[in-house]
Amino acid sequence: MSSSQTGRTSTTGSSTSSPSRPDSGDHTATRNGRVALIACGAIAQPCAELVARHGWPVDVHPLPPLLHNQPQRIAGEVERLADELARSHETVAVGYADCGTYGALDEVCARRGLRRLPGLHCYDLYAGERRMRALFEEQPGTYVLTDFLVRSFARTVVAELGLDRHPELRDDYFGNYTRVVWLAQHPDAELRLLAEHAAERIGLPLEVVETRQVGLEQALEDLLAAVVAA
């Protein structure tokens, strides 16, 4: 996955609604009246889009998506950034699922009083845990793409695995996979073509599962409501 700078990607004005929801104008729990969301770089842009659409008083701070290639670092990086953001925000939320940390992120959240998005990985946020479980049970050799991975496939998969330099390694990496499933948040013609090219690059058939952003939107709304109410 490609890296990105750690910085605020979304600042929107607050809106008024029920005080128990994240779009409430009453956020007295935060020093600056806003929530800092530490987001996985792979879902930071969709989160920022949802924040802007709803007018939630949230600042999105992405961590590099390349951390997914080293998930043992995620918990430490989240804690480091949480320390930094605590100087300007009393409320910090974690825009990660477990993401391969095997409970290490939950340990940080429990110790620091933080809340995170639900699920084992970002695929759950788009398709739901039950649907993802069914996909893997149907074909354990399922390789999953999101819109982010479709767009960045050449960098985050091909280059990171060295397939641009050693294409003969393709079967070593993907020989046990049987299909590519694209969880399509925005299933337009351009992204579909990129998904087809990605599947062709690793020699697998492509299936498209349209998810839109409904699951992520609900999970993010619930997370923000919980941290504001805490």
Key descriptive features of the protein:
single chain, 230 residues, alpha/beta, 3-stranded parallel β-sheet, 10 helices, globular, disordered N terminus
How does this structure look, described?
Helix 2 runs parallel beside helix 3. Helix 3 links the parallel strand 3 and strand 4. The protein is 41% helix and 15% strand. The N terminus is likely disordered. The chain is globular and about 55 Å long. The protein has a 4-stranded parallel β-sheet, with helices on both faces. It has a 3-stranded parallel β-sheet with strand order 5-6-7. The chain is an alpha/beta fold and 230 residues long. The two termini are 34 Å apart. The protein is built from 10 helices and 7 strands.
Q: In whole angstroms, how far apart are the ends?
A: 34 Å
Strand content: 5-15%
Strand order of the largest sheet: 2-1-3-4
Write the element-wise H/E pattern from the N-terminal end onward: EHEHEHEHHEHHHEHEH
Structural Rg:
18 Å
What is the β-strand count?
Answer: 7
Category by helix and strand content: alpha/beta
H/I helix tally? 10
Q: In terms of per-residue confidence, which ranges show pLDDT below 50 for 5 or more consecutive residues?
A: 1-30
Estimated helix fraction? 40-55%
Overall average residue pLDDT: 87
Q: What best-fitting shape do the alpha-carbon axes yield? A: globular
For the biggest sheet, the summary is: 4 strands, parallel
